[in-house]
């Protein structure tokens, strides 16, 4: 067999250093961008940076107030505790970004307060990748953090102590029977005696159902919004929040250049400074165009609430703006927009379509979840609605839902079954 060598010319997309820097700038929120540009201005004499004004609170104690000592003495918050572990447990930037998104969804109890699907969508990853990060987070100390319900919280603590036997798993999977005191039924399920169940119950009672409560009840850091949307003169107006944006200016024309090496250095510095200015302009333009299109599609959502959000994907927005979907993902990731309905993640304007893909029959998953919550909120508390009854009321409201889908949405909302709601109200036998 004779070996031959051929030369072939092909076209391929290469990611240059400047392209990578531009994408990083696009993905930064205003606070991160300010820090990044401040560092660049320190290194580049042709950049003049005027950071946004920061309002500082002063202590009422006067000149003797020791702010540093106060910070050191302050109890550590749950978010700070988790963020410190994330920094060492996730060396990769992408996994760390997903982990921090989960951390921002932690409730004071230490449970995860947002659905897995929401974190996956907000980070632009599939649910399998988000689940892998969540399972790693669930190994953090203290055991039980990032649980999605009570059974998972207790299971994580049992596993941490090497007590998660098959019998213990069965017990934790049947907590309603345990709460009702049906030890004989549990003994039958676990192939054990009632005394064995009582012993296991004593172990379960030693676990902490709210492992996050031992930390200071400080909220997760709140970043100022990157954009604002408001009603003005009969229409919705979208604008950048320039109060948190740094002002960048090209300078250095009057810098002395006594020799060729200095002149070459200044030429390079001016080139890098001009690139940063152009990248900033592209970032602002892309962010504003994307937000304006999202608002245009979701006017009903802004005017009437989550029940009226329409199906909208990143691919659809990218096609309308003639951009790549990954650009839209970067432009909307970790972005906040101030609206009359509160400050929301920009990615809240996206919603997965369920059911038929064409025509007016397509339904928004977020709107359907909001409908289930609205129906349960309006029920007669003495006669809680079954999932079948919720399905029927949703159909009457024009939404097509399977009963198992109602159950899934109800569980995502943290709403108990009709029997458990009745029992928690003291109405069930």
From TrEMBL:
Coiled coil: none annotated. Residues 69-251 form the RNA polymerase sigma factor 54 core-binding domain. Pfam families: Sigma54_AID, Sigma54_CBD, Sigma54_DBD. Residues 264-423 form the RNA polymerase sigma factor 54 DNA-binding domain. The keyword ATP-binding does not apply. One of its GO terms (cellular component) is DNA-directed RNA polymerase complex. Belongs to the sigma-54 factor family. This is RNA polymerase sigma-54 factor. It comes from Rhodobacter ferrooxidans. The lineage of its organism: Bacteria, Pseudomonadati, Pseudomonadota, Alphaproteobacteria, Rhodobacterales.
């Amino acid at each position: 067999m004779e070996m031959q060598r051929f030369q072939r010319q092909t076209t391929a997309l290469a990611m240059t250093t400047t392209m990578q820097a531009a994408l990083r700038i696009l993905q930064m929120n205003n606070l991160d961008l300010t820090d990044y540009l401040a560092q660049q201005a320190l290194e580049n004499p042709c950049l003049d940076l005027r950071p946004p004004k920061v309002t500082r609170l002063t202590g009422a104690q006067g000149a003797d107030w020791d702010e540093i000592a106060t910070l050191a003495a302050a109890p550590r918050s749950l978010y700070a505790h988790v963020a410190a572990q994330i920094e060492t447990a996730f060396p990769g930037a992408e996994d760390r970004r997903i982990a921090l998104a989960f951390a921002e969804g932690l409730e004071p109890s230490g449970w995860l307060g947002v659905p897995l699907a929401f974190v996956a969508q907000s980070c632009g990853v599939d649910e399998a990748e988000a689940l892998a990060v969540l399972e790693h987070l669930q190994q953090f100390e203290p055991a039980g953090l990032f649980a999605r319900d009570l059974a998972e919280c207790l299971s994580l603590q049992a596993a941490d102590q090497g007590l998660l036997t098959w019998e213990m798993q069965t017990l934790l999977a049947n907590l309603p029977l345990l709460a009702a005191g049906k030890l004989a039924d549990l003994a039958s399920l676990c192939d054990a005696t009632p005394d064995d169940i009582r012993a296991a119950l004593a172990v379960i009672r030693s676990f902490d159902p709210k492992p996050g409560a031992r930390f200071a009840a400080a909220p997760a850091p709140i970043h100022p919004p990157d954009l604002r949307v408001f009603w003005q003169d009969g229409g919705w107006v979208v604008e950048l929040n320039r109060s948190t944006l740094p002002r960048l200016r090209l300078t250095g024309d009057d810098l002395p250049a006594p020799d060729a090496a200095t002149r070459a250095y200044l030429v390079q510095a001016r080139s890098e400074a001009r690139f940063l200015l152009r990248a900033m302009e592209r970032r602002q333009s892309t962010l504003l165009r994307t937000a304006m299109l999202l608002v245009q599609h979701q006017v009903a959502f802004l005017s009437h609430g989550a029940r009226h959000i329409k199906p909208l994907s990143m691919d659809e927005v990218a096609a309308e703006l003639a951009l790549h979907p990954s650009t839209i993902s970067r432009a909307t990731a970790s972005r906040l927009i101030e609206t009359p309905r509160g400050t929301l993640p920009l990615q809240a304007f996206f919603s997965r379509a369920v059911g038929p893909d064409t025509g007016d029959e397509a339904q928004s998953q977020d709107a359907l979840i909001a409908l289930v919550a609205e129906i349960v909120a309006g029920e007669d508390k003495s006669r809680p609605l079954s999932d079948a009854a919720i399905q029927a009321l949703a159909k009457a409201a024009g939404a097509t839902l399977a009963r198992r889908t109602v159950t899934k949405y109800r569980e995502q909302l943290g709403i108990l079954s009709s029997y458990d709601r009745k029992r928690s109200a003291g109405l069930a036998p």
